[in-house]
Amino acid sequence: MEIMPWLSQALEAKDYRLVLEEEVEEDETVGELLARIAARHQRFGELVLDAETGGLSGHVSLTFNGRLLELLDGLQTKMSDGDSIVIVPAFAGG
Amino acid sequence: MAATKVDGYAGKILRVDLSNEQLSEETLDETTLRKYIGGTGIGAKYLYDEVPPGVEWSDPENRLMLTSGPLGGTRIMGSGTFSVVTKGPLTNGAAATQSNGFFGAYLKFAGYDGIVVQGAARRPLYLYIHDGSAELKDASHLIGKDTWETPEAICQVLGKTERELSVASIGPAGEKLVKYASIFVDKGHTASHNGVGAVMGSKNLKAIAVARGRRRPSLKDSQRLSAIANEFFNNIVNDPVASQGVYRWGTLTGVVRGASPGATGFLPVKNYTTSIFEIEPDKLEKFGGPYIRSRFQPKPKPCWACRMHHCHIITITEGPYTGFVGEEPEYECFASWGPVIGQTDAAAAIVISNEVDRLGMDCNEAGWLIGLVMECYEKGILTKKDTDGLEMTWGNVEAVRAMLRKIAYRQGFGDVLAEGVMRAAQRIGGDAPQFAIHTMKGNTPRGHDHRVNWTMLFDTCLSQMSSDEGHSMLRPEDLGLERLSAPFSPEEVAKSNAQTKGAVQFEDTLGTCRFTTRTDLRLLAEALKAATGWEFTTTETMEVGKRIVDLLRAFNMRHGHTAEMDAPSPRYGSAPVDGPAKGVTIMPDWEKMRGIYYAQMGWDKETGKPLPETLARLGLEHVIPDLWGRKP
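The joint structure predicted for all components is written out below.
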């Protein structure tokens, strides 16, 4: 999983880009993976997930294997080994 | 008309009749102010009331309004922002566009809430406002000067420093009536959309200079307003994303975010012919905040009362443009002069951005135009013979710079391009109209690839303002709405756009900056109360905004807009050929979305006209006979 500027800095990474490698279980969904990371990294959870609904927060956009997550099954998209997620800050301002 | 002084307001509107070179003052009663507030709202009211069908954008009878609001010139960050409203040349309809800087605050300090310009001068003039009065002055010595030279020259003549004088001016493009000429303010800010600078040029008005005065409008509760100003600030610095994004870097994060491998396809690349910006990592880094701020000697240049690290003057310190001094570009300028035209040198993009600003043109429209020309050139629709000998290949910086000057002065092929994307494509002919990115009203979108953001694509096409009118940092939960969960659902997008419509227009009545107040309706209503004493619920703030949208919708329909114009051009609505949304297009559902939106807005399902009952509910009864031919 790659977390791109400037979210990486919000997560206190030194670099502009933060790469996390996670093992996924058979048929684990993107939502389950994000919740799993959020459970051990509070700041990540605050940024990426909506505390009330459990859905994606308004702060970020995700691609899954180069495809917009919303064009797949959203957080229900199933994962397998080698899959790639990129998280970038949602657009704000012009 | 006599009226009781209302807290938060300077209390006067300055009317400038250029045909007779006469100035007068008028007041607005509290009922009117409460209904339209200020900024875009007051501008829209004047536009509707005083510009009837048949008046074209360049007619002397057209009006040009520059308006602050009741929060203008307060301690709220960025409250030097003001709105410009007029009938603009790209859409032949309403233009409502904002500029940051100091102008709105200084206008209030000089004793005015707004300016209404009418007529056309027989000789070049500029307006000088100071100490509660105003005068028209000869501007013949300013003709031909760019939007940096003009304020410098006026400061020199008046013996003022740039901090003592805020200047809104047009450049050569405005003088030559380029249809996307803008009004530039305080070297680096702009009211950009729909050719408002061409309207000013058509009136032979080169500039408006406002001296910083000592008048301060009374506030109902200034202590409370100061506390609210701090709350706006704290909301940004405590926001995990904004604190690391716009607060720290302005909009410099945009290109790096958009061009990173795996990014969302929102970056506009090579006139939408691809969604992938091919750029080496070391070159991409140079478009980012850390590189620019550490290398290019940034000097902060904040707007009125702003505490963000947003605007800077920079000096390029390396490469062929070493020594170039200019404004640090906003994301959208970078987008135009980088990915849109297939250009990967950040320093060159900085130079072009500043040159376009100084010539006095909208960077969005100009970028889409050059992108269109480059695609046509690549595909053989245009040749060197057509482009006055310039090789308009992707990323050719020097050819772009030369062409932009031709446009600003309407020389050779530049005269065709000065008409804007839609009209230039029609003139070029062949397949060019198929490649052109614009709405069917005739304006172009902001600097993104909206094909991956249906909310903004739909909003831009349905807008009455000549740019997007719904995009904001509004939290839907503040309106009791759920966050849009399916951004590619035609039904949800159309419904959500209608339900949130009006929030930005309310914000734009106040004289504040969207970057800092972030469409926080609850806090904005509290600020309005502290300034004026008026109580507004969140629902009532939305009613103000919807009133403005519907008033401008009515204006546009009376001036020839139709439901069919609520649509994108073929390329704007096309499916990306690659990237993370490859093959996906909004168009099969367009009619359905438009129907849902009209129904939600209370507009007629066939014509798109606001229904009589909708107009009556919004307090726009006087519009009903104009649109429907009968009395309410």
